[in-house]
């Protein structure tokens, strides 16, 4: 048990250590290195856990393979976010690092939770840290982002609590996968709908997405990278545990299951289409990325529409690949915005135009991340979508796969428009942040290499996942 | 072991691409030598070699399945020749990355021509977009941004619809066998296609149809082509019109013809009307052009109409209750058109490019009597235009003659429309020659130089190849005959 909790504990301990150090010195660099070493140690322990993996089950936590993979992804993006915000020079740098460490530590606990109370507590802990993080450093734009995020987040917590209470009434338990009593089967479905709404806010599914645009656009680029990837995937793993666990279908009954599936189909189609179509009209790159992250939430939600055991096992491994791709490409794309924002340049298309002539390496790596988001082979983004759509086909939902493919075709326009502007004649001189350049370059290399290797390891993921308990 | 060379053949241009990126200011020389070397490497790969690296059923349908067939060998050869010619023609001052892009394009094109797995085919098909997009965007004319995005969206929409078709075919195979397998030979066979419902069959054919006919291009979907060919820089236009359009043709001959037994009578007539429309429309559109490069672009679209015509003949055969063997002549002609057009069109774009470089204009009315100042250009251009209008003794004639004669048996009097189109084709070629090369010299142009050696000699080589292939077509033609029989046997 302790080996699985250790990564999270280490992040908390290093968070406290950062506070302790900040009493004596406000050196941003020292605090950065302290938190970076905490994240690295936590990452290594997670890697060790992954290699010596054994399934352990307790009433509150299930220490299983998907939880470990998702934790690894959270800490991975945390490391790169810390590295890319090295040049931040604001007051109270300790708060920034502490909040990040605490948020990620709680996310790891969420990924392992298998009890609604534990899920709620850890989810809230992570969320509260991210609300404060969104407002850092205090600027009107980021305060607005944070306030919207907080108000909507509080609303979604209310939904979750409400859902949990109905869940408890109908099943008399907080543990997932318990059969509801016959008298309360209607209430059980209601509780699930409330939970979908509550977690759907965090995943930015279509009718609940509006906070995401302003928050991702308003916060600092590395913070947006953390919010749009780790925080979203946290909601995803919780939803996977609730809606894809082994006996969910028995729990809800076959009619109820059809309803839930239809609900997810409608939501995912709306989310994809809305995100892609509105992103077409954006002339600000960061705002466009925010909309495209809504569209990507639609692809992520596709996994809940799939039925049938073979289709589901491919879908679960493909959602891991897609999450990996999502962390790399979306996180990398938001981090690259730091190159413009951190230098006081805006992020509109006209502001970034011509960067390729001045900073070719950065432009090429950013372009590769955009290709991956657009689903151009052989990047990881293509592979993630390929296997996800393949699992849809396996689950007899070929028409949904067609809608998703066409959506992915629409997205090409707005990603390639950014590439087009980058290769225009430069109007001004660009000074890029070297840390950001390195992070984006390494993400681009990973996107290609892991993408080419995906077909070889996806079968292995399938075996390791082994079906949810 | 012999088949393992296919993998090396595929990877080699990618390595060359990196080498030319690293070679600094000698990029042009090194790239040209490597491209020339590559032709020599390609030559001994005689068909048929097949190579499979992974079992697709264990890797969710993906495998590396490469093949040099009777259809792909001439195209791979054509690719290596055209890339080599373009590299010699290209001014070295353009920068090393241009040559790198050319090699990357060669890599993806050869991948398209050799793939026997649909997913691999799709990956290479999409990969072609990236170097061509950047070649337009970085070295294009004044409207390059608009053109690059238009090109990208047109072709990407086509290819995504093709991906949908591929997925439906995969779904069909999976529901029958329980495995994913995207190898063309296993997936698109009569046995599996007959299980598709009419709606799915329609969707599948529609996806492939749009992907291939947009890339070809055929008339209603052609509007990206003139823009792209005109806005790109000369060597890019050579490569785009000479090679990228062959991707569509290759898809038609290798994948689309497999649907012949499952198509209704409408398909054949629909394709026939598209073909006739392409030939006649492109001829008249070219006649009206004021820009010489745009005229050449439309002539290229017109030639692609002959490929559509050949395909429509194959689809018409079952409708008219004629054996497929009767369609062989038209089919061979259509395939030979790919090869001939790929050799001829670089000459046209090359000569237009030289005129543009020395006179600074492409407008036909600003020229006149260029023979006086540019005798070498006049020779190349006359040879190229005559080849393009289908003069007997040159490669274009063999293709057009076979298609027209081969289609007579099927469409009888409708062939007169094709003949009429050919007359217009001949007239706009001759008329353009008259207005640019001959007549009184336009003194406003002042004293201008002739073709440079780097432009002249590659064009002469191409003219010689066109004449040799025109007089002695059988080595290439017999390969296409083999392939036509292969199609007939399916």
Topology readout:
The complex is a heterodimer of chains A (469) and B (490).
Chain A: H1 2-24, H2 28-51, E1 56-57, E2 62-63, H3 65-84, H4 93-112, H5 116-134, H6 140-171, H7 185-203, H8 210-218, H9 221-243, H10 248-252, H11 254-280, H12 285-301, H13 309-341, H14 349-352, H15 355-358, H16 360-374, H17 380-394, H18 398-422, H19 434-465
Antiparallel strand pairs in A: 1-2
Chain B: H1 4-22, H2 27-42, E1 49-52, E2 65-68, H3 72-89, H4 96-114, H5 118-127, H6 129-139, H7 144-177, H8 184-187, H9 190-193, H10 198-215, H11 224-231, H12 234-254, H13 265-288, H14 292-319, H15 328-359, H16 370-373, H17 375-389, H18 395-411, H19 415-436, H20 453-471, H21 474-489
Antiparallel strand pairs in B: 1-2
Helix pairs in contact in B: 1-2, 1-4, 2-3, 2-4, 3-4, 3-12, 3-15, 3-20, 4-5, 4-6, 5-7, 6-7, 7-10, 7-11, 10-12, 11-12, 11-14, 12-14, 12-15, 13-14, 13-19, 14-15, 14-18, 15-17, 15-18, 15-20, 15-21, 17-19, 17-20, 18-20
Explain the overall architecture.
The complex is a heterodimer of chains A (469) and B (490). Chain A has 19 helices and 2 strands. Chain A has helices spanning 2-24, 28-51, 65-84, 93-112, 116-134, 140-171, 185-203, 210-218, 221-243, 248-252, 254-280, 285-301, 309-341, 349-352, 355-358, 360-374, 380-394, 398-422, 434-465, and strands at 56-57, 62-63. Chain A has a two-stranded antiparallel ribbon. With 469 residues, chain A is mainly α. Helix content of chain A is 78%, strand content 1%. Chain A has a domain at 295-469. Chain B is mainly alpha-helical and 490 residues long. Chain B has a domain at 263-490. Chain B is built from 21 helices and 2 strands. Chain B has helices spanning 4-22, 27-42, 72-89, 96-114, 118-127, 129-139, 144-177, 184-187, 190-193, 198-215, 224-231, 234-254, 265-288, 292-319, 328-359, 370-373, 375-389, 395-411, 415-436, 453-471, 474-489, and strands at residues 49-52, 65-68. Chain B has a two-stranded antiparallel ribbon. Chain B is globular and about 75 Å long. The model of chain B has no long low-confidence stretch (mean pLDDT 88). Chain A binds chain B through residues 314, 371, 376-378, 382, 386-387, 389-390, 393-394, 398, 401-402, 405-406, 408-409, 412-413, 416-417, 419-420, 423-424, 455-456, 458-459, and chain B through 54, 58-62, 119, 122-123, 126-127, 129-130, 133-134, 137-138, 145, 148-149, 152-153, 156-157, 160, 163-164, 167-168, 170-171, 174, 180, 203.
């Amino acid at each position: 048990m302790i080996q699985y909790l250790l990564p999270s504990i280490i992040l908390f301990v290093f968070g406290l250590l950062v506070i302790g150090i900040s009493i004596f010195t406000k050196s941003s660099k020292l605090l950065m290195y302290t938190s970076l070493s905490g994240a690295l140690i936590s990452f290594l322990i997670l890697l060790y856990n992954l290699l010596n993996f054994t399934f352990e089950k307790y009433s509150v936590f299930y220490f299983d393979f998907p939880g470990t993979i998702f934790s690894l992804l959270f800490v991975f993006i945390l490391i790169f976010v810390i590295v890319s915000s090295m040049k931040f020079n604001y007051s109270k740098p300790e708060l920034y690092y502490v909040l990040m460490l605490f948020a990620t530590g709680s996310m790891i606990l969420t990924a392992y939770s298998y009890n609604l109370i534990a899920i709620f507590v850890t989810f809230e802990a992570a969320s509260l840290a991210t609300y404060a993080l969104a407002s850092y450093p205090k600027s009107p734009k980021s305060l607005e982002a944070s306030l919207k995020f907080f108000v909507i987040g509080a609303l979604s917590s209310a939904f979750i609590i409400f859902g949990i209470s109905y869940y408890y009434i109908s099943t008399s338990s907080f543990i997932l996968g318990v059969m509801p009593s016959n008298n309360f089967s209607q209430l059980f479905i209601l509780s699930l709908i409330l939970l979908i709404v509550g977690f759907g806010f965090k995943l930015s599914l279509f009718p609940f997405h509006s906070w995401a645009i302003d928050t991702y656009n308003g916060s600092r680029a590395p913070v947006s990278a953390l919010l749009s990837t780790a925080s979203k995937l946290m909601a995803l793993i919780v939803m996977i545990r609730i809606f894809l666990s082994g006996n969910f279908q028995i729990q809800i009954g076959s009619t109820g299951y059809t309803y839930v599936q239809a609900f997810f189909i409608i939501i995912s189609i709306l989310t994809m289409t809305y995100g892609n179509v509105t992103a077409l009209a954006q002339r600000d790159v960061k705002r466009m990325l925010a909309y495209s992250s809504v569209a990507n939430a639609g692809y992520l939600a596709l996994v809940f529409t799939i039925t049938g055991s073979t289709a589901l096992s491919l879908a679960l491994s493909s959602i891991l690949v897609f999450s990996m791709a999502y962390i790399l490409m979306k996180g990398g794309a938001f981090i690259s915005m730091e190159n413009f924002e951190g230098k006081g340049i805006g992020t509109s298309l006209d502001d970034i135009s011509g960067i390729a002539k001045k900073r070719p390496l950065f432009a090429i790596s950013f372009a590769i991340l955009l290709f991956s988001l657009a689903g151009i082979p052989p990047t990881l983004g293509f592979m993630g979508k390929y296997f996800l759509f393949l699992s849809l086909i396996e689950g007899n939902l070929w028409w949904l796969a067609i809608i998703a493919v066409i959506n992915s075709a629409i997205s090409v326009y707005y990603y390639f428009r950014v590439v087009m502007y980058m290769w225009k004649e430069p109007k001004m001189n660009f000074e890029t942040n070297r840390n950001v350049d390195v992070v984006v370059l390494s993400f681009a290399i990973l996107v290609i290499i892991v993408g080419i290797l995906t077909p070889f390891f996806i079968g292995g993921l399938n075996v390791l996942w082994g079906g949810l308990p | 072991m012999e088949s393992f060379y296919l993998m090396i053949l595929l990877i080699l241009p990618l390595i060359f691409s990196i080498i030319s990126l690293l070679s600094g200011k000698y990029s042009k020389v090194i790239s040209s030598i490597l491209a020339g070397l590559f032709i020599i490497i390609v030559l001994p790969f005689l068909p048929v070699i097949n190579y499979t690296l992974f079992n697709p059923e264990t890797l969710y349908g993906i495998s590396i399945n490469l093949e040099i067939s009777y259809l792909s060998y001439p195209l791979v050869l054509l690719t290596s020749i055209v890339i080599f010619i373009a590299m010699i023609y290209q001014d070295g001052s353009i920068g090393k990355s241009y040559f790198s892009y050319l090699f990357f394009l060669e890599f993806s094109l050869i991948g398209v021509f050799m793939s026997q797995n649909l997913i691999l085919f799709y990956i290479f098909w999409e990969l072609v977009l990236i170097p061509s997009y950047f070649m337009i965007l970085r070295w294009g004319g004044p409207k390059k941004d608009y053109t690059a995005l238009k090109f990208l969206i047109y072709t990407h929409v086509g290819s995504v619809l093709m991906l949908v078709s591929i997925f439906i075919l995969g779904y069909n195979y999976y529901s029958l066998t329980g495995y994913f397998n995207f190898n063309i030979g296993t997936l698109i066979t009569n046995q599996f296609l007959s299980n598709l419902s009419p709606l799915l069959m329609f969707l599948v054919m529609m996806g492939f149809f749009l992907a291939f006919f947009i890339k070809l291009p055929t008339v209603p979907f052609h509007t990206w082509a003139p823009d792209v060919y005109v806005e790109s820089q000369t060597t890019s236009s050579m490569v785009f019109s000479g090679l990228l359009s062959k991707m569509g043709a290759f898809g038609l001959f290798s994948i689309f013809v497999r649907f012949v037994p499952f198509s209704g009578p409408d398909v054949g007539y629909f394709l026939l009307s598209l073909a006739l429309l392409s030939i006649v429309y492109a001829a008249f559109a070219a006649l009206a052009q004021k820009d010489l490069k745009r005229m050449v672009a439309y002539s290229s679209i017109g030639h692609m109409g002959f490929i559509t015509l050949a395909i429509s003949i194959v689809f018409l055969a079952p409708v008219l209750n004629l054996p497929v063997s009767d369609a062989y002549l038209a089919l061979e002609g259509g395939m030979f058109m790919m090869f001939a057009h790929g050799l001829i069109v670089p000459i046209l774009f090359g000569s237009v490019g030289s005129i543009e470089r020395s006179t600074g204009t492409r407008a036909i009315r600003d020229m006149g009597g260029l023979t006086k100042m540019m005798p070498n250009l006049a020779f190349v251009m006359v040879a190229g235009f005559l080849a393009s209008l289908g003069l007997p003794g040159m490669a274009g004639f063999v293709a057009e003659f076979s298609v027209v004669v081969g289609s007579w048996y099927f469409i009888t009097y409708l062939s007169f429309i094709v003949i009429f189109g050919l007359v217009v084709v001949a007239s706009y070629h001759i008329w353009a020659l008259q207005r640019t090369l001959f007549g009184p010299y336009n003194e406003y142009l002042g004293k201008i130089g002739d073709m440079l050696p780097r432009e002249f000699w590659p064009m002469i080589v191409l003219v010689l190849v066109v004449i040799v292939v025109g007089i002695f077509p059988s080595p290439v033609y017999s390969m296409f005959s083999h392939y036509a029989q292969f199609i007939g046997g399916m």
